[in-house]
Amino acid sequence: MQAIQTQASIGKMSLTQRSTFSGKSVAVARVSPKAKSAFKLNIVAAKELVFEVEKPLGLTFGPKSGKEGGVIVKAAKGNSASAGMKAGDQVIYHSSFFGDELWPADNVPFTNTAVKACPGAVDFIVIRGADIGTVNVKRLPKRPAPEKFARKLTEAQKSRATHLCIDCGFIYYLPTPFAEQPGSYICPQCQAPKSRFLGYDPETGKTIGSGGLPPVVAISLGLGLVLAAVFVYVGLEL
C-alpha cells in the first residue's frame, strides 16, 4: 500500500485528497470550508430614554419575540405613563434589587422580580420605534445607576425626602423612614455609611444640622474633612 498524498488549503484555495489502495486510485470527496452564520446586533442603541418611575409603577411587561430575547412594555399606566413610558417600549435596563446599578432586561420573570424588590423609585432605560430589536440584551454588561445628585424631585419624592448623603449628594426619599433603617444601611449611590447622612429640607434645598448649608457646600466640607483625616494619618505614619 502506498502512502497517502494530501494537498490542503484554507479560504479561497480548495481542499483535495487522493489515496491509493491496492494499486487503485480512489478520489476522496471534495471538502469545502463552511462559513459560519453570525447573529450580530448592536450593543448600544441609537437612542436611549431614561425614566425614573415611582411605585406603584403601573407597568405590564411581556417577552420580546426573537432569539435575542428582551422585555417589552405591554401597558404603561399611572406613574409610568406620567413619567413618559409607553406601550411598545423595549426595556434594556432597569434598577437592581439595591438600586446602586442597572441590570439588563433579558427576560420578564427576572425583570418583574427585580423591580418589585427595589425599595424606592425604579430607573428604566428603554428604546422605542425603529431602535427596538437593535440591542442584544443578553450581551449587555451591568451599568451604574443614574446619579441622583441635582436631580429634580417629584412632589411624591419631596414629601419623603428627609436626608442627604454628604459624600455624593444622594437624597434619601425611600418609603421606609430613614430613622428605621438599620445602622448597617449604606448609601445606594456611593456606599457611604449611614453616619454620612445629614437631615435635608427639600423646600429650601439645604441640609439640616450643618448650619443650613446648601448640599454642594456640605459635600465639599465633608470631602475636606475626609482629606484632612487622610493627611493627618499619613503624617503620623511618616
Compile the SSE list and pairings.
Blueprint: E1 5-7, E2 16-21, E3 24-27, E4 49-53, E5 59-63, E6 71-76, H1 78-83, E7 90-95, E8 101-104, H2 108-117, E9 122-127, E10 143-144, H3 155-160, E11 163-165, E12 171-172, E13 197-201, E14 206-208, H4 215-237
Antiparallel strand pairs: 1-2, 2-3, 4-9, 5-6, 6-7, 7-8, 7-9, 8-10, 11-12, 11-13, 13-14
What profile does the largest beta sheet have? 7 strands, antiparallel
User: What is the straight-line distance between the termini?
Assistant: 83 Å
Give the percentage of residues in beta strands: 25-35%
User: Helix and strand succession?
Assistant: EEEEEEHEEHEEHEEEEH
- Weakly predicted, low-confidence segments: 1-29, 34-45, 212-217
How many E-type strands? 14
Main structural class = alpha+beta
Q: Name the quaternary structure.
A: single chain
Overall mean confidence score, pLDDT:
75
Gyration radius from CA atoms, angstroms: 29 Å
Shape: elongated
Tally of alpha and pi helices? 4
Assign a percent range to the helix content.
10-25%
